[in-house]
Amino acid sequence: MTKKGTILIADDKDIGRDILACVLKSDYNIVTAYDGKEAIECINESSDNLSIIILDIIMPVVDGFGVLDYMHSRGLMAKIPVIMVTGNLTSDISLRCYSRGVFDIITKPYDINIVKQRVNNAVELFLHKNKMEELLKQQTEELEQQAAKLRKTVKELRISEERFKMASIHSSSIIFEFDVNAQNNLILDGVGQFKSREMKHCTFENMLSLVHPDEYKHTRKMFSRILAGSSEEKSDVRMKSIGGHCDYNWFSVTLSPVRSHDGELIKILGSLRDINTQYLETAALRNKAELDMMTGIFNRATCEAKIRARLDRLKKGKRAAFLIFDIDSFKQVNDRYGHNVGDKVITTTAHLIRAWFNHSDIVGRLGGDEFVVYMENVPNEKLLLKKFNNLITSLAENAEDDENFPHLTVSAGACIIDKPTSFEQIYKEADIALYEAKADGKGKFKLFEQ
Question: What is the pLDDT of residues 36-70, one digit of tens each?
Fold first, then answer.
């Protein structure tokens, strides 16, 4: 007959162990222990093979409750059924036993048939329970594997949907994807300056390195906002080809996140649409509207609008300056040399004024031979006087180098701006200073004083 398993009988009384062993040895392998310490040693050696433990409460060294506490600390109470043995069963003992997870309690003297039935019931119940738990564990693992496959399929479907959506919207664009985990870019389709074969193994950092330095930080922030939860990012940026052999061209960049149903970011899909021709045409039209046709510097309307905007943003404690330049005796230049030379004088003077001021300064022609400059971060009057003298010197050198260019000078009036004011007010103050400069003679500079 096949044995049902192994029973550990722990009892300090020989007769108690012998009776239980005699009753159960036909169905089970028997292991005995004299006290709780010896029982714990047996449990450590054979816990995987034990079908049940019969444990006397009162034992030397370590009692039955001590063995229960040890089994509980090892997580064994849920795996091995325990039947406690006592000669004096009270409600307090019952509570202490069952609260520790004991399956059953039998009392001395033993009823052999009842003991055997209770042991069999406990073993069969735990065997069934353990089998069910193992089956449940296997089914849970299988379901988790199936769920993982399903999540992967859903992700792939979402990516395919977004690819199709982006491809249909940007049919003439280059479509690429950025794997958030692998940090890999891959061109899916597209035409234009970028070629698919060039982008097969282009990494995220490689792609960013193609962006013009002026747009690099902005482009990186677009990706950061997508990672932070933005639904879409669009911008126009300058980029060059993978090989870096061509100039920067303008592209319209669109970034769209692909997220799972629980919001996890899977990939970032992007498109690059070549808008260089369109951008340059728009810029040319804008320049045509903003610039003075003869000189290439700002016209009166644009110059005034830009200065008004700067005045509105001028911070407290900052100093700015406004200057008006006027060519001395310009009417005589036209009368003596003709309008062609007069136009050349206006153009050359505008270019020299533009050259002697910073790129951030606003330089414009208000009309005729009158030019204005608005500049910020002006420490003192000496800077204005220095730039004026540089302009006078440049005009003289130009006349020396070009025999067809007349010797001439300009006069200038300026005002310092250190408090909120209007364009009308600074123009009035600089114009008064210009009038005073003209009254002093040619090639003079005057700063407005209250």
Answer: 999 999 999 888 888 899 999 999 999 999 999 99
Alpha helices in 170-202 (DSSP H): 196-199
Identify the bridge partners of residue 258 per DSSP, sorted by sequence position.
267
Longest dimension (CA), the chain: 142
Q: What is the mean pLDDT of the chain?
A: 84
What confidence tens digit (pLDDT) does each residue in 345-404 have? 999 999 999 999 998 999 999 988 999 999 999 999 999 999 999 999 999 998 888 877
Contacts of 121 (CB under 8 A, 6+ apart): none
Is there a contact between 319 and 374 (Cβ–Cβ < 8 Å)?
no
For the four alpha carbons of 299, 236, 199 and 220, in that order, the dihedral sign comes to positive
Q: What is the mean pLDDT of residues 288-317?
A: 88
Q: Which two tokens stand for residue 69?
A: 């506490």
Nearest CA among 188, 192, 178 for reference residue 246: 192
Q: Is 232 helix (H, G, I), strand (E, B) or coil?
A: coil
- Mean pLDDT value of segment 435-447: 93
User: For the chain, give me the number of helices (H) and strands (E)?
Assistant: 14, 15
Cα 405 to Cα 345, 368, 399, 402, 443: the distances in Å are 7, 18, 5, 5, 17
Q: Are strands 184-189 and 174-179 parallel, antiparallel or unpaired?
A: antiparallel
- Tell me how far apart the terminal alpha carbons of the chain are, to the nearest angstrom: 122
What domains appear along the chain, each with residue ranges and CATH number?
6-133 (3.40.50.2300), 170-279 (3.30.450.20), 291-447 (3.30.70.270)
Question: What are φ and ψ of residue 427, in 5° steps?
Answer: -65, -40
